[in-house]
Amino acid sequence: MPARLLPSLVALALLGMTLPGPAAAAPRVPPGFLGMMADGPLFDPRVDLDAELGAMAGARVGAVRVAIYWDTAQPYTSAADVPPDQAARFTDVGGVPTDFAAPDRFVAAAARRGFALLPVVLRTPVWARRRPALSNSAPTAAARAAYGRFLAALVRRYGPRGSFWAANPTLPRRPIRRWQVWNEPAGVRDWAEQPGVPAYVALLREAHGAIKTADPRAQVVLAGLVGRSWEQLERIYRRGGRRWFDATAVHPFSARPANVLKLARLARGVMRRHGDARAPLLITELSWPSSKGRIPRRYGFEQTERGQAARLRSALLELAAARRALHIPAVFWSTWISYDRDPAYPFDYAGLRRLEDDRVVRKPAFFAWQRVARELTR
Fold this sequence. Notes:
This protein has 378 residues and is an alpha/beta fold. It has one domain (35-376): Glycosidases (TIM Barrel, Alpha-Beta Barrel). Helix content is 35%, strand content 15%. It has 11 helices and 14 strands. Strands 7-6-5-2-1-11-10-9-8 form a 9-stranded parallel β-sheet. A 3-stranded mixed β-sheet has the order 12-13-14. α8 packs parallel to α9 (257-273), α9 runs parallel beside α10 (305-326) and α10 (305-326) packs parallel to α11 (364-376). The longest helix has 22 residues, at 305-326. The model is unreliable at 2-23 (pLDDT under 50).
């Protein structure tokens, strides 16, 4: 989810509001280029998950980014801590009780629709937090190894030799080959202790070793960087982080689609200076919330529903045109469904669709996505 953005990003968002015209002919992109974030109301009990994934496939979404929450999967340190009435939920993973129910369900549903999955693995269990009372706390230094072991367990379950596929032979086999290590470590929403980059690089090193041991050909994706993302990326490189990831990720939130491209170019420039000129650069969150006129303005890039749709189209066309030059393999819109009701948080209005009572309603951005996806995958 998007972080509480830095004032510097708000300033960048206000640089201008004029939308550039689309190119005469949209470039073609591979199926996995068009990605979608799966979160929030998509997992509401009132929503038919399989039907919504079918709608995604019909809208030519090729890749899906989904959170796997460490704290939900491993809330207890040992079997002795598990309440007796919950014991059946858990599998022993190196002595730690682990609940795979949520990722199992989603991986199965996504495999049936043929999606490439990008899991982002985050959120520290209470027993592993530096500050136990904070749900956004980073792991302690000692708990970094436990995070690595959890990642390794996920790779062994859902990767190319995964036990999940062996146990479900009737499913289309869609092993996960990309793993994103945490989210926005320079933002307090997902990493309470700031500055977060030094401790994040230490966690990244642990994660890289664990993932590569379980699947040497897996791609380790850096956490999505937001705000002055290029400066955060530079700090990660300066701390020796280059050895611990295969792909960079940014969240280029801004008022103008042209600034989305500018932020991607700034990140690519940092990568080039550090010898990663051709390494992948993913846009793991892209969004314009349609909260303008409904709640107080907060970030500077809130839009009406029509403005959201227009910017979605413009940004996807620009990123598609630049994808080869910038080595962008995928762009993930955040998000598929939102509630559109929070009185204070603009990103609660970010969906292409919204949940109203017990039904899902399509917004103008949904139709804009459909049209541009047809153009890009014709």
